[in-house]
Amino acid sequence: TVREAGGNSITSLSSASHKALHRKSLIEKRLLLALDQENLEVLYQPQYDLSREKIIGVEALVRWEDEEIGVVSPDELIPIAEETGLINDIGSFVIEKACNQAVEWSKKGLGLKVSINLSVREFRDKNMAKTIMNSLTNTGCPAHLIQIEITEKFALEAEAESNIIKQMKILANEGITFVLDDFGTGYASFRYMQLLPIEILKIDQTFIHSLMMSDKNQKLVNGIVQFGKSMNITVLAEGVETEEQLQQLKQFGCNYIQGFLISKPVNEKEIERLVK
Ligand code: C2E
Ligand code: MG
Ligand code: MG
Ligand code: MG
């Protein structure tokens, strides 16, 4: 397979990069099959409102355990899927699943919002808004139950950027909420705050993990929370693992938290148990 991909360069590849290439093509091949057979799963992690003291939503996170290669973490899976274009199929799968789940919970009176992760790259697809609206229609899911978390790990060319803005505005007008994920670590956090219809800002977990380590870190996080307030934007802190972090964030006036302290990502039945 390396010969196909790299031609004569096979002799110059180190054994480490040879292995990496092999794993990548194996993942690609198995992922195609998994998507075809719907062998992916979705787990949900609660999002907790600090002032109302209850779970108000969940984040949908893709999970994949392949028969041949075992568990492939999203951190490995998503970049490969983005490179190969299979990210759109993962996106469609997760959206459909999340919409069905949101409807089911709504029928049970749980009223949970479901957040979906989409990479800014997926919005290169000019039909993205249409695809998402179709999923809502097909599943009977009201737009206000769905949130879209976007991250921006790459610089985008101007044309792709203007398409993203257009697609997002269509969806925001339909009632979908946009969340800016991994805030503070992305490529253009403030630029996207200015251009996109963002309603929730998610402070990256690296800032939360180091929160109690120094006065400087606390000032930084407090600064982000106050910035959110002044922009009239809801602030969510992700990666909250300790009661101490929770109390500090509450004192800053942070709106929502998410993290192992409340719950790790779990299946839908477990979410229902946690909410009750
Ligand atoms: P993310 O959207 O920032 O999701 C948060 C990640 O942090 C999740 O990892 C979650 O399991 C983990 N996490 C949550 N609370 C804690 C905590 O208290 N401590 C620690 N140490 N970790 C915590 P996961 O599920 O492995 O996902 C990693 C990333 O992969 C996500 O980061 C997201 O960017 C991406 N991802 C996951 N599912 C999807 C998907 O369906 N589509 C796309 N495009 N990306 C996805
Ligand atoms: Mg996320
Ligand atoms: Mg994040
Ligand atoms: Mg992340």
Q: Can you characterise this structure?
A:
- This is Diguanylate cyclase/phosphodiesterase with PAS/PAC sensor(S).
- The protein has 276 residues and is of the alpha/beta class.
- The chain is built from 11 helices and 9 strands.
- An 8-stranded mixed barrel has the order 1-2-4-5-6-7-8-9, surrounded by 6 helices.
- Strand 5, helix 6 and strand 6 form a beta-alpha-beta unit.
- Helix 4 packs parallel to helix 5.
- The termini are far apart.
- 34% of the residues are buried.
- The N terminus is likely disordered.
- The structure holds ligand C2E and magnesium ion (3 copies).
- The site of one magnesium ion has 5 residues, from strand 6.
- The site of one magnesium ion has 4 residues, from loops.
List the main descriptive attributes of the protein structure presented here.
276 residues; alpha/beta; 8-stranded mixed beta barrel; 11 helices; 21% strand; disordered N terminus; binds ligand C2E; binds magnesium ion
